[in-house]
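Priority: medium. Attachment 1 of 2:
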């Protein structure tokens, strides 16, 4: 008798969920990124019990028709890649059909959506990975996903969730890191019916950075910019005088995706060499844009880590841009000293 067996689909989805879904903040990340990929300009996030009882994300994006909605909860279904070459030139934040079945397998899940071409919306209910209902519904264009009782069917996983305060902290950090990269999108967060965060659509990154990092730092941040062979770097950094004891003020992005990348962080700190003592960190928001085929975003299931085809060039661009920006502060300010007007023939004294 064979000891090797093909796992049931529901069990394999739970295993996949274990790789991607660690806590309520993980669900928030996946659902909000899907909403952004759908072209949303307004994203509303509502939580109950720090997301343990309810995580609901509503957006005004393109939505889906009935057939696409049913496919979206199937494993390996996505609208964002078609061939193996697409895996190495990803332009989206995630794959709609990649996360949804994983989330639905460990929760009581409801998907409500309608696209512009459909007369009626679609409501799909899933419990622990099993579809329990599909119906038409009167809905606006867009998508709303409700995730109730996360890990209700995996008690061992649920008991490892932290206190409501800790889980809310992770949710706020996750939403903040996403909102920084999408200044023209409105974000709202409520918890147990009470508003927690509200970031209106901003005119550009500086205003959103001020909203998220703190308006008191807006005048302290120094802009930097560099472009080399299709690799573009834009960002804002604090001077060596404005530092923090942790790295929580450092936000790094690759193609608008928030990442925790050691290479970029090392390049940033190298640019600050000699200006910050050990154990202190600057405030920095860096947006690195590279051709999709020069970066692999599939290094980690949560896509927080990336791999570059030319890491040396990436490091050099960031380090030199940061160092040049800080060196500009060292240049003495040019002062203007008023000079007497030039003497002319008519201004000479006349002797007789």
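Attachment 2 of 2:
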């Amino acid at each position: 008798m064979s000891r090797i067996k093909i796992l049931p689909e529901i069990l394999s989805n739970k295993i996949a969920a274990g790789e991607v879904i660690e806590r309520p903040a993980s669900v928030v990340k996946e659902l909000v990124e899907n909403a952004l990929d759908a072209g949303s300009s307004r994203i509303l996030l509502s939580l109950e019990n720090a997301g343990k009882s309810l995580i609901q994300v509503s957006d005004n994006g393109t939505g889906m028709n009935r057939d696409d909605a049913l496919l979206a909860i199937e494993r390996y279904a996505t609208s964002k890649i078609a061939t193996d070459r697409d895996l190495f030139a990803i332009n989206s934040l995630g794959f709609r059909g990649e996360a949804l079945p994983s989330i639905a397998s460990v929760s009581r899940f409801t998907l409500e959506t309608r696209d512009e071409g459909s007369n009626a919306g679609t409501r799909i209910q899933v419990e622990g990975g099993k579809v329990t209902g599909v119906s038409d519904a009167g809905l606006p264009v867009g998508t709303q996903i409700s995730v109730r009782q996360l890990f209700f069917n995996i008690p061992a996983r649920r008991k490892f969730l932290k206190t409501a305060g800790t889980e809310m902290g992770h949710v706020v950090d996750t939403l903040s890191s996403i909102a920084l990269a999408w200044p023209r999108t409105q974000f709202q967060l409520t918890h147990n019916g009470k508003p927690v965060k509200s970031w209106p659509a901003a005119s550009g990154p500086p205003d959103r950075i001020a909203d998220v990092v703190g308006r008191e730092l807006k005048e302290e941040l120094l802009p930097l910019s560099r472009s080399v062979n299709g690799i573009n770097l834009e960002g804002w950094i604090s001077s060596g005088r404005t530092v923090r004891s942790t790295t929580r003020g450092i936000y790094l992005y690759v193609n608008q995706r928030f990442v925790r990348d050691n290479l970029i962080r090392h390049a940033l700190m190298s640019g600050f060499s000699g200006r910050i003592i050990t154990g202190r960190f600057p405030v920095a928001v860096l947006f690195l844009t590279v051709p999709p085929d020069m970066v692999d975003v599939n290094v980690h299931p949560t896509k927080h880590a990336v791999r570059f085809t030319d890491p040396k060039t990436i490091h050099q661009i960031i380090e030199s841009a940061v160092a040049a920006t800080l060196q500009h502060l060292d240049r003495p300010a040019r002062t203007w000293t008023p000079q007497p007007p030039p003497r002319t023939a008519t201004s000479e004294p006349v002797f007789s």
